Amino acid sequence: MTGPSVAVVGGGLSGLTAAYQLSRDLPGARITVLEASPAPGGCLDTVDFPSGPMELGAEAFIGRRPEAAELVAELGLADALQHPSGRSASILTGGRLVSMPAGTLMGLPSDASTLGEVLDPADVERAARETELPLDWEAGGDVSLGGLVAERFGPAVVTRLVDPMLGGVYAAPSRGLGLRQVVPGLALALDRGAPSLTAAAKELTAHRAPGPVFATLTGGYRVLVDTLATASGARIVTGARCTGLHREQGGMRWTWPVRTAAGRRWPTSSSSPCPSPTPRRSWRRPGSRRRCLVPGGDPHRVLGGGRARGRPRP
Prior knowledge:
The protein is of the alpha+beta class. The protein has helices at residues 13-25, 66-74, 121-128, 145-153, 155-170, 179-182, 184-191, 197-205, 221-232; strands spanning 5-9, 30-35, 46-49, 52-55, 61-62, 81-82, 90-93, 96-99, 104-105, 108-109, 214-217, 235-238, 240-242, 246-247, 254-256, 258-260, 268-269, 271-273, 281-283, 290-294. Strands 1, 2, 12, 18, 19 and 20 form a six-stranded mixed beta sheet that branches. A three-stranded antiparallel beta sheet has the order 5-11-6. A three-stranded antiparallel beta sheet has the order 14-15-17, with no helix packed on it.
């Protein structure tokens, strides 16, 4: 029996992981990954220098979180795992290299009095007042990590501590990252009733898990990208940028008119964009073997690639 046709839009780490998981969940599926850039990998880009491979995007992942380590092991890359040296993290500020303040959690302070080497006195004073601010937190919710830290500790804590720490991991500013996504333990502490970010960070740093914080792979992230692409069995099409999602006459057949780098329009069936880290639902018309990956489960919603005809922009 012919398997379903599935297209994943975006060949970054999320898209390749989605393609790999689909290959396991849907044996026999014909999977196509459509990537607008010349090569898969998204924000990850490993290049060779005379001294060895160098990451131009994110350089490591959080070794204390299980998801990435489990995927690496599942792909047979556990022996390629590398951890930084035992030296503590340092920050270059004001022309000086100083150690990361003690008691910080991904740059969030648990004790503002330790920030004097990194922040100006006025910024230290503002960060210390975080415990006095009322906290409006909805249990189970999520907010912008950088936005919340700037609001409560002041923007200097974001620019001098949080963003330098997270930029090498997520290749993105902290304002675009969810607190629960990046520091789930902190979100859980707030769910349990911690009265401030300082208190939540202090709770977590007091019970910090042993072992290195960060991990990467010998040979760089391209090893993971190449292994995922191969393990997924997907057809990887580069230079293919999605421009719309349309319903054709004669049923519920979905197509992506894709303009390639050469200016061609290449229609592929049954696709929907998947920009989120994990596709939340798949949607399929009853009786059809064409499947769409749809963040949030709405087959009409198009994120980042225009909008479906006949539907209002969400």
